[in-house]
Amino acid sequence: MNGVGLSPLLALHLSDGMLTPGAEWAGLLAAGLLAFVGAWRVRDEEVPRVALLTAAFFVASLVHVPVPGGPKTHLLLNGLLGVVLGRRALLAVPVGLAMQAALFGHGGYLTLGVNSCVMGLPALLAAGLFGGLRRVPWAPHPRFRAGLVTLTVLTFVLGLVYALALLLSNRPSQLADADLSWANAVTFHPATLLGALALGALAAWAEHRLGHAPEFALGLLVGATAVLATALLNGLLLVLGGRADWHALALLTFVIHLPLAVVEGIILGFTVGFLARVKPEMLGVKAPKEALCAVELSP
Prior knowledge:
It is a single chain. This protein is mainly alpha-helical. The chain contains 12 helices and 2 strands; from the N terminus they run αααββααααααααα. Strand 1 (64-65) and strand 2 (73-74) form a beta hairpin. Helix 2 (21-39) packs across helix 6, helix 7 (142-169) crosses helix 9 and helix 7 (142-169) runs antiparallel to helix 11. The protein is flat.
């Protein structure tokens, strides 16, 4: 197949007919329960924020990211939804996906529930991860931030090496019973580990020199984690609930979306850094009280 023909298959929006009917109906049921959790006791003042982020999530499907040697993919922004909306992201995701399916043909109607779970659960993970790391007392410390950047880059490099090693050492038809020995040997070779660690340290040094906001490192890790979790869930469903043998497709889809994880991490890093300065309440932080003017009013 050429790149155009592969594009619908390699997207993280599963299309109708790729999964068994049982998996599709189970996804619809699970998505309905998650949407109920997201909508539970929603307040009127939360509705505009949910609508705004739903629109951003919907429009993100139009922002394509070219992958060298492969088809284009597009931004997900489910990590951003999770960080800003919390559990309300479980309500925003199915609405945005339904609009994408109706207007652009992304995904399908029978797989709307599965796609909502694939996008919504990582958003919930992003919310918990960002909130937990932000509450750590030493989160603003430069060494902690450097550790987060190093960990993000290290995970990305090792994941890319492992996935590529699997593709190169196994034929697509054999991925169901893949031989992991060469991939394990290459990925966890001391030279590979030292090289990945060196790249992570270099990225941490560059982040420190650029003087980003303390929240940038948190957003980088959370954004990349949300994309990786989405790709992993997508692949797991293809392997366990697919109508055909989708092992090769699942692995190839994961590899193609690794660069997107870095892009979304950078986007979320800059976004949360900006929001922390101008609108911290959107990140669940109370804005500091403004100092009262010390000018006495004349009687």
